[in-house]
Amino acid sequence: MANAASGMAVHDDCKLKFLELKTKRTYRYIVYKIEEKQKQVTVEKLGEPGQSYEDFTACLPADECRYAVYDFEFLTEGNVPKSRIFFIAWSPDTSKVRSKMIYASSKDKFRRELDGIQIELQATDPSEMDLDVFKSRAK
């Protein structure tokens, strides 16, 4: 079903892979890309469970927008292991205006398709989504 705001559909694989991340912890992260020609959001990259936060950030292009989901694991103050699923809207200042507009207008509908997102981040440069930001938001 196309998004009324931008006309973007969400590929079934997007929801399927997210469900695997959420329920089975099959992936550490998922990077999503809008394919303008097909008018849909698709899975661009899947991160293996053992991959690090640095591996994840290296997948985000410096001058193109993306959506991403990251399964952030941490210890509470009482040393209890927990995890939070973050949705990241990556929109670097150096990306094209048209791209920023398409990603911005499609974001809410796409995010609603991924049931189980716990925290949302909007980032225009890597410092807005560094590990300290994740740690402070995950509590």
From TrEMBL:
Residues in ADF-H domain copies = 5-139
In its UniProt record, which GO terms are filed under biological process?
A: actin filament depolymerization
Return the Gene3D superfamilies for the record: Severin
Q: Name one GO cellular component term.
A: cytoplasm
Keyword annotations for this protein?
Actin-binding
Fetch the PROSITE patterns from UniProt: ADF_H
* Protein origin, superkingdom: Eukaryota
SUPFAM superfamilies associated with the record: Actin depolymerizing proteins
* Entry-linked Pfam families: Cofilin_ADF (PF00241)
Q: Does the keyword Nucleotide-binding apply?
A: no
> Would the keyword Nucleotidyltransferase be found if you checked this record's keyword annotation?
no
> What name has this protein been given in UniProt?
ADF-H domain-containing protein
Q: Which organism is it from?
A: Cucumis sativus (Cucumber)
Q: What is the lineage of its organism?
A: Eukaryota, Viridiplantae, Streptophyta, Embryophyta, Tracheophyta
